[in-house]
Design goal:
This protein is of the alpha/beta class and 272 residues long. The protein contains eight helices and 13 strands. The chain has a five-stranded mixed β-sheet with strand order 3-2-1-4-8, with helices on one face. Strands 11-10-9-12-13 form a five-stranded mixed β-sheet, with helices on both faces. Helix 1 (50-60) runs parallel beside helix 3, helix 4 packs across helix 8 (263-270) and helix 5 runs parallel beside helix 6 (227-234). The longest helix has 14 residues, at 195-208. The chain is globular, with a radius of gyration of 19 Å.
Length: 272
């Protein structure tokens, strides 16, 4: 879709690259007008390292060879942990992260400070991949995929008087973001593929946080096969269950009309 981009103006554009074990993708966006927008996927060779796959993508993708005004790199990994802003200290970053996760070889711990949520997201990525990308894109900013969603949902949760649980459902896992009128209560992810498991995790968190079955809200987003089944089962227990429609959320912008673009990438681009 890069035919829509005038690369002579690339220094006006924002480039966002998303790295995931099941595939890479990237978008190019003109913040002055969303008619200049492209989104492309890049398959990965699962028998090669992330660094080798990134090196191949950079070598073979013409669009990634231009200079850009801003470069974002999204890292999709379940190895993340939130830390309250008041408790965060730079020099304790690794200690805080590895309190929740076992150490891994060739890994670097990064952080995103989120002002709207008053929280710091610590996350890890492959050290060699980080070095390669930093050398190729010296001004790049690195984000966990949960960071833009945390900020976006924090802003949404301030509307109305109810507590809100946002479920970002994917084929192999579910991420939950829980708020009480903008105050972050919980972020977590759970590996699960079946509707019954998703219902169990969501209702368990609902109960643990003391949410009200009648008035508090569960909002669901994501692309997965059994969405209607999940919604039907949840509505047996909770009255306020809604689906987030990206087209409606983002005022039918060009970005929201692209079916394959991940929701975390949409929120990062449109809410910067």
């Amino acid at each position: 879709m890069t035919e829509r981009i005038d690369f002579t103006k690339s220094e006006q554009y924002t480039l966002s690259i998303r790295l995931s074990a099941d595939g890479f993708s990237f978008s190019i966006y003109n913040p002055l007008g969303d008619s200049d927008f492209s989104f492309d996927s890049y398959p990965v060779n699962t028998f090669c390292s992330m660094t080798a796959n990134i090196k191949e993508m950079l070598a073979n993708t013409e669009a990634l060879k231009y200079p850009y005004k801003r470069i974002n790199i999204l890292v999709d990994s379940p190895r993340f942990t939130p830390v309250p802003f008041d408790l965060f200290e730079d020099e304790q970053m690794d200690a805080l992260f590895y309190h929740n996760f076992p150490k891994a070889n060739n890994e670097i711990v990064l952080c995103n400070v989120l002002g709207k949520s008053n929280v710091v997201i610590l996350f890890a990525m492959d050290k060699h991949a980080h070095q390669l990308l930093t050398e190729h894109f010296p001004t790049a900013r690195f984000f966990s995929t949960v960071s833009p969603l945390t900020e976006y949902f924090a802003q949404k949760s301030r509307l109305g008087n109810s507590k809100k649980l946002y479920a970002h459902v994917r084929e192999h896992l579910i991420e939950v973001y829980c708020y009480d009128k903008g105050k972050l209560l919980l972020i977590n992810s759970f590996p699960c593929k079946q509707t019954a498991d998703r219902v169990y995790y969501l209702l368990y968190i609902w109960q643990q946080l003391g949410y009200n079955q009648e008035k508090d809200e569960l909002q669901v987003t994501g692309k997965f096969k059994d969405k209607e089944e999940l919604l039907t089962d949840l509505r047996k227990y909770l009255r306020q269950v809604f689906v987030i429609n990206p087209k409606a959320e983002f005022n039918r912008s060009e970005i929201s009309k692209i079916e394959d673009i991940p929701f975390d990438m949409q929120t990062l681009i449109l809410c910067e």
